[in-house]
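Hi everyone, sorry if this is the wrong subforum. Our group has a chain we'd like a structural model of before ordering constructs, and none of us has done structure prediction before. Sequence below.
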Amino acid sequence: MTDSRDPNTSKPAVVLHPVLPPGVREHLGDLQGITVLSPADDDGVAEALAAGGCVLVTHTWDDRFLTPSLRWIAGTGAGFEQYPLDRFDAQGVVLTTAAGVHTDCVAEHAFALLLSLTRRIGEAARNMEHALWEPLIGEEVQGRNMAVVGLGRIGDAIAQRALSWGVEVAGVKRNPADYTGPVRDVRGVGELVELCEWADIVVLASPASPDGKPIIGRRELDALGSGWIVNVGRGSLIDEEALLDALTVGRLLGAGLDVTRTEPLPRDSELWRNPKVVITAHNAGASPGFGRRWGNLFDRNLAAFKGEGAWVNRLGEDIPRGNR
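Answer:
Right subforum, don't worry. Here is the predicted structure as tokens:
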């Protein structure tokens, strides 16, 4: 692939998207075998790739990034629904994901959101802004029923933690027959309403639907009733209008959201002001350890890019397109 390297150094020109998880930029800056380009915005990314950049490090996509020189996208996220995969196939672009890099981190964050709801810590944090001392009676999760939607690596990690807390767990997977993880009761997407009726807690850990439509709407929220919902998957998975109705006029006790349909969440969204909602800014996968783990993955794939090893987390080989 010498035709897509920096002609002045004979090193692969690696273009970094300006928004990256912690530690990624530092790891790449220390590598000797690449030329690192750090544009300030999407326009700069497109220009750097048009000028011959052959590797893109990103978790977001703009169609301008698909230039003739692009050969490998080193994704910093586990998802891939944002990418034009057919066009990658036609051009021979390799896509590797960060699946597994932030599994434990996201699983812990899902529980942080859940406990902030059940123990009413979100409400207590709002009270702190007004120096209001108001003892709040929280709920316990032990003995509850949890439905995990999306039994990939992250979903399994959430389920494993819930099981150790004495929570009964069932799950949803597109192909239940292929499942080999810790959850005994695994169902297809067509049984989601019935599973919501059974559950006290629903945790979303799946990629977006192929059509981009919500899988949690009014029927599912009505079925969940007086329960809690946590989303560490994709914002498009929940019908936000239905969610607000369930929180205001319905029985839903709370929603913990690390992702929303529009990001950043608009300042005028009612989700900000609803006392039953706890929001984090799509940072469930961010931790000081991310850069080290992702860097190890990048180093192995850089060797593969140079023809010196096997790819890891390559979409279509290690990671089927229907899974996370």
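For your construct planning: The two ends are 29 Å apart (CA to CA). Residues 1-9 have pLDDT under 50 and may be disordered.
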